[in-house]
Amino acid sequence: MTAARTPTPETAPPLGLRERKKLKTRLAIRDATYRLIREQGYEATTVEQIAEAAEVSPSTVFRYFPTKEDIVLTDEYDPLLESELRERPVDEPIVESLRIVLRRAMSLGFAEEPEVTRLRTKLMTEVPAVRSRMLESMSVTGAILCRIIAERTGREPGDLEVRTFSMGLIGALTETAAYWAEHDHEDDLPTLVDRTLDMLTSGFAGAENPR
To answer: CA-based angle 114:99:209, to the nearest 5?
Structure first.
């Protein structure tokens, strides 16, 4: 949700030459995109400009990112999200597992690119095309949670309860990011995420006004 760079676990094997080149290209495209958006705005930034700034062809941009919105939204954390959730104890509540994994992701994202993290959530909130694409992409992360929850509960990933709980989590976290951006990023994002996950597990009980 928050990290624009690839958080690499310390236990992950080193990338091969081909993978390093692909990652370098992806990051060059993303860095060029954010730089241009800061300078001239989202709508004025074209794929052709991004390609020129990243020193690649427009077809290369589209090979890595199907749409301009995907450049803003895509990070490499989804595959790691699944593997890291699988590393958590199977008897740990899924919300707590998600809290721990997200806290690590957020710390990595802020440590590497705090301004990119803020710009990204701002675009999610203010640019209709980005928000629309984000809502479409939520199904990918939702499917990951469905698989994890299904394994832990002995249910099928397509069960109604599994799907609604998973997508409820994703929707709640999306709204948390939107709230953070709408309030000029003044709040501490990890604290907001904790409030959100607490709400999902306990409701309003004992928390009339956390502010």
So the answer is: 85
